[in-house]
């Protein structure tokens, strides 16, 4: 076959392909290859025809042979790309990317439009494979080409925006280079926008700031972006809100942070981050009640801020709402997500605070949960304060040996630490070794004089100590007063101050004030509530007594606050209001149906109201529960007498006289 015949055969092959006669084309090509086995065009045409005949392996082999012969010729590379792009070609993405890369090289110095087309295809391929770094590098090359060509600012702006779209999911892959490319794209996009200020530009800035806030290490860039956006859009609250939350999460509250909180609240009084910021400011200023109120309100609007939940728990601890603090710590964990970097620091702080709250709750279940929380703290074993908390949790759980072991370890390794001595004090106090407890608490106070709890427990130690201190409770009083001064929310201290003024000093008025304060701080403290009511009655101040009882009964759930219902029922009974007395005494019995005295009082109330049958049932119930209640048995007989049941009444009177011969009311009956 001469050179002329080879050309003719190749032309025939080309025509056959054009006419979709692929088998015919293959025949012509094979004839050429018999003569010239390294004929580039023949191999390319074989690749084309085989691809159309659904013979991918033969096509691929032919193209590769052609490429081997002429690596810098376009045709074979284009053919291979077309083959790999076919839908039935799977598992060739890596090969296709290599082919696109080669085509980019070949087009670079020639057909720019084709270069851009291939570049777009390559980027799309990388994007499907989630190869974000390759996406970034390839797209940046495209932008660079456009810049070199002198592209318009508007076109470049759209390209940077497209790059943002391509890379926006890269944040989940934690690829630092891809992240940096995304942020660079944002910076170029916000700086190349045409209409500034404008709605599109504003939304773009928001997206940029939102993206920055996902990267804990980009704080300087975040602050700058927020300030820049605030300068362009002074009436938009978004950048200020992000900045406020950023300051909250950072855990350090500078003047700048406090200024941001104030500015945000001026702009939007209902802004969640602004209200949270105000709550933290209140916490710093020791306005704990206000802090709890504001943080709770702010978190209803912005619930995803773990640091804010931690601050709320901290404020709740300050006012001794320990169960609430545990719930807030649980919310903080939910908001925390995956703890790493700065989040890990918050995780440890939340776990420790939760453990402290559970230890203050002081029951065995809470102690077990506290131990579990402390076990999750990273590097807990090297922190003596965490170790002391663990000791207290063991003590609350009744595991005295483990608590003592930790106490001994701490005293030998950290004798300078107040918590080491306090733990020893709590252990001695729980074992009623009051003299040892006194020494331990004095040592703790010497190292940390500002801790109210240490003064409280030293006061309790003196209160229960020995006969001498029982007569002279002056030492206990001094410590209770110190504790109350250091922590005005410590309800139990005010209760003991009430005990001192009532039982030792005989000052009923001052005692009543202390009990009232204790009860205001802790509405579940029945001892203080009861004492405040009793002393108010003794002092002739029924208004105060009733206001306390009304407040408690209004809030009480069914079967709760028995003492308050009972006290108010007896008050109504004494003051001739039997119907109200019946209602209150019934509520008290719902809380404790086996209280014989309460049944007796209910009988009196029914009797005063003229409800004789129900009065009789109540007196009988009281004597059933407690056969020693002679008065109830007598009243039952008296009611039977009123109802004309004389035989029953006589039998009951005789029953009383058998037990108590000189019981005058029964003799009269």
From TrEMBL:
Source organism superkingdom: Eukaryota
Q: Where does this protein have coiled-coil stretches?
A: 3-39
Cite the SUPFAM superfamilies for this sequence: HCP-like, TPR-like
Q: In the UniProt record, does the keyword Coiled coil occur?
A: yes
Q: Which InterPro entries match?
A: Ski3/TTC37, TPR-like_helical_dom_sf, TPR_rpt
Q: Which SMART domains match?
A: TPR
Please state what the protein is called. TTC37 protein
Q: Which organism is it from?
A: Rissa tridactyla (Black-legged kittiwake)
What does UniProt list as this organism's lineage?
Eukaryota, Metazoa, Chordata, Craniata, Vertebrata
Q: Which gene encodes it?
A: Ttc37
